[in-house]
Amino acid sequence: MAGILLESGVVLVPLACAALYIIVTSNKLLVFFSLFATLVFLAGRRLRYHYSSGAYGDMVVRTKDQSGSAPANTSDKKSDGDSDDGAEFDEIIHDAHRHCDIDEEVVEGSGALLSTAVTTASTKFDMELYGAALSYDHRCFYIDGRPTWILAADFDYWRIPLSSDISEEEKSDTGKADQVKQAWRRILLQIKSVGFNAVRIRFHWGFHSPSKGKYDFTGGRDVHQLLTLCEELGVLVIACLGPYVGDDVQGGGYPFWLIQRDHIRLRHLKHSGYKLWDNHFAAAEAEWYDQIIPMIVGHEVVTKNTRGRGCVVLVQVENHLGARGPLSLPLALQDETRLLARMARERVIRTPLITNNHVWPQDFTSFAARAWMQVEKKLRAYRIIGDIYRTDLSGFTARDIAQNPLDIDSVALITKGDNVPMVAAELYRSVDGGSGRLFSEQIENALSQGLSAFSLPGFFGLSTTGNFASAALTTSPDVQCAAIGEDGLLSEDARVSRLVLSAARAFEHMSVASDYVSARPWITRPVKPAVRGVSIRGLPQEAVRVRRQWEYFERPATGPSETGASSKDSSRQLGIVTYVDGTKTSETATDGELAFLFSLADAPTLSKNGSFALTGTLGPRKRGMFVSNVFVGGADPLMLVAATKEIYARVSLDAGCEVWVCAEESIQSGQLFFEGECQVAGHAEVEYVDVEHAAGRKFSFVIPNPGPGLVSVTGSGSGSAKVYIALVPQKALDTLVADYRSYDRARSETSSEDESSAQSIVAWGADSILLESDGHIGMALPSDATESTDEKPSVFVVSSSQPQSDSAILKPVSRLDASATFSGCPFIWQFDIEADTSSTASGDAALTAVSGFEKRITSWDTMTWKLLPTTSDLETMDEINVMSWQRDLGMFAYNAIDVGLNASNVLYRCQVRLKPQHITSPRILLQLNARHRCTVWVNGVNMSGHETFHEQKSITGSFQALRDALKTPGAVQGPDRWSGTYTYDVTDVMRISNIPNSSAVSSNADSQGDEDEEGALNEVIVIVESYGLGTQSDGFNDARVPRGLIAAYWHGYNLIGEDHDDSEIHDHSHDRRTEQLRTRWEICGVDVTKLPNPYNSAGFPDETTSSGWSAAVEYPLVQDSWSTRAKINVDHGVHWLRWQLLPSSNTAPLYLRISGRATAYVWVNGVIRKKHRASSNGSSLVLLRGGAFGEKSPEGSATADSIVVMMYGWADHVDISANDGRLISVDLSLTNADNA
């Protein structure tokens, strides 16, 4: 604890000494010079250590030498506080590179790297060998030679509530394994349905390793099955190996058994802001990589297996290592990344390695970033430091890229990227500064600014299952604003995101390998009259961003090429996408029609007037993506020269016929400009015009009519290429979903269809439609049906062949109604939704039945209590030396982390016997210092509680954040002050034997204990709820910041009396300390390292007991909507309720609503699903059944579900008195409404 307080002194002590010198001598010039010299020396030493190249030649990763023995660890110095398990870590160091799944020849060959320093070149991706499968340049990635975006959403498989994780017997159950796979499948299909083609999977070390030396990859932890499923569904994977997962997970994702070992420096942090290499930690990292990498090696995209090509396209090592300290000095050690990259390569990872160590824009465009770049350049020139180590790709974290647009030149300047794409490993929905950028806006900005790969954390609901969340995520609702909730229901932002991704991927082939057109471009004269420039009259330059494919041609098998000629028509390779952001200008400028000016390739200049003009409006989102130079057909194609009509989907019916989906004119108006005199029929008008700079050519000017309808455009060429344009209403756009073939493993080997089509099936009508390229259609949430109307809800599918339904509620319609908008279309198929939605529309009707309503109360006496010594106790045993200022605080020698009690709640008990001669004051006070929420009972009377928690509002990792953390106790991140003590006046409830009068201490007669020679027994019970461990992020050494009860001491009595020997007391002047010597505290909880899932416990030892339950007849049940009001007596401790949810055919998600001034935990089938914290008027919703994220099929439950609720009263300590307010009400009700 002393180190935590002194961490800030690393920088402040030198400054304080300098200030003192100024005061004494007033020689400011000398002081400033000395201070400057000191800072330069420290900075140089820091940089020398940071940039050291191969300084740790004996680091962990070893192969056996020729004699067959492993080299010994050459480090003779042990870490401070090395314990008896140091030998175990030495063994890991010696044997960390034992692989049973890798050929010995491969291991010995890769071991050649160990004899030399690890350099960028030594771990570089071998594009010459694997370029045919995977390559990249500054524009994009190429998979099998095809340009590909990597559009990912984070998929945290360990957050999914699966009851198969809680029982060892169930892990081998085939049925349970199938349920796990089906839950994963539903989520991955929904991710695909939004438009993502990839997921970023963060492999959670602590989830797989509950205790030291034990690893579990079965059931809900089966990584091999998860990656196999991704391959089957055609989903790419960014594999984030860690070991650090992120700051949204308590402990950063490190296992609790590793956090317990205080002699190991997590992330090599000795103090906050200061790192020192630790071989023990490096050995533990090697142990984790030994376990997780063999699960990934066989699934890389550069390899092929029985399912085709693998799915892992990038491998991320570590996360957020780029934190900087004072004066922006780098904190990370170069050897951290070197070690992890070397371990990955030696364990035969062949895909590109990526880090995520930078933050946009501060690490790229700020003055400090540019200054340190020049400093590094000079230091390398004078050979003070070596070359900076970099992985193949340098990813970064970005938030609001609308206000701070990405610049590929700035990124390349800092990352020294040699012809590599921009990758945002974490592209957040910005919540800082109140900007509130939506996910849909971030996606559109990312595509327009040239990001080749990105992942969206938090797009899919961060499930509240278990104790995974960090303190910041637990207490801040703003960071849980997911586009799709854990119940699988889509928000408006999710629907818009789906529409944006559909529009972008409809023309993926012509926009992926593109460059930003920022100046007058030069191009080869094309065969067709292609557009080469676009501008919009009246909009500022920053509101219009044009991206153009620069003469794209088929890539050779060896990888991308920068120059060369194409064998195809060059005009086909000038695809242009114009992104318009109407939010960057005034509303009046974008409310009306906009004039789009297009310049043809034959135009001599990009004049202000252009070659021709079209008009159009922006849709409801005030943005737009407009395409030019689109071709349909083969030898004599139909060419769309330009369009101001957004095309949201594109389906190929055959080689010369496509269907485009657009909005009707009342939603987004625009025109389409085709080359040649086309035949136009249906819901549109056509004009034939001439265009300047295209002499001798005719063009068709197509103007859609108002309202929904179908337009057909047939080319004038001999090929008779044809396009159908479906104009659909807003309801169809809100539910539009497409299936993509751009990376579909089922077709990649055998497909001979035109590669220009990015979508194979399109459907609309319900939010949760799931499509697969084999022509099957299903629903993730059958009852999400559209709004209740008089007409029967239907799903419409655009496909070249009859789709097959995988859902029992989708009934195909043999023939479209003659009055339907698209009647007579042979490529539009209709399915009626037969589910009975009447029960779900009202929100609370026809819910499932409950039975077996039971209750019980926790008995403190049946708990297993263990003595919790204070620092004073240890000093008397001559085990430690305690600083004098610690002696009076009654601080405990161990906190909850040290003894493995890392669940949410930890229980404490103090028993003390008092006689009249012990009383020294009219008031008896109990002072407690706890993290984070404390509830106190004294002799069976609830004294309420207090909360010590502080969430910094300043920028993460800044000096202001450190200052805020030191100013207020209970910091969510960084060092935590010792203060935060609250005082409870317990005078009225304390028991004192043989009281001569009531003047000294008032006492309640009912609570008096029997008089005896030892005094009246008093019992104090304290429950401390932790919001989560520190995350060890941004250079803060906070994973071991104490949790639970930190200090406790009494005022008002002294146990030194005539029956005690005064020689036992070392110091009579400290009453506080003497009071502790006869006051013993005990601790009780759950050692999570002994659980199969260390994140699935509330900390109560009796939470799984089956005894002590009785019928809860006093709670009335209202069966119409199932609700009850539980009256909780705050003095009775912890209350438990349980019941069964009977099987039901109801397909709607089912929630439990909790409201009331209590702390409550909810278990569903043995898994913690939600925590409700006391509030005077707030409520919490718990998803009990259904939803795409549930374990069981969303089409109803065939088995009963077990529900357990734990509750105890809590309020601020001034809200409850000893004589009033002893009962609180907790309302429980079932509902189908997610906004109840």
UniProtKB/TrEMBL annotation:
Family annotation (Gene3D superfamilies): Galactose-binding domain-like, Glycosidases
Pfam family, one: Glyco_hydro_35
Keywords: Membrane, Transmembrane, Transmembrane helix
Record flagged with keyword Membrane: yes
Keyword Transmembrane: yes
InterPro entries, sorted: GH, Gly_Hdrlase_35_cat, Glycoside_Hdrlase_35
GO terms assigned for molecular function: hydrolase activity, hydrolyzing O-glycosyl compounds
BP terms from Gene Ontology: carbohydrate metabolic process
Location of region: Disordered: 65-85
Domain Glycoside hydrolase 35 catalytic: 181-323
Transmembrane regions listed in the UniProt entry: 28-44
Family: Belongs to the glycosyl hydrolase 35 family.
Name listed for the protein in its UniProt record: Glycoside hydrolase 35 catalytic domain-containing protein
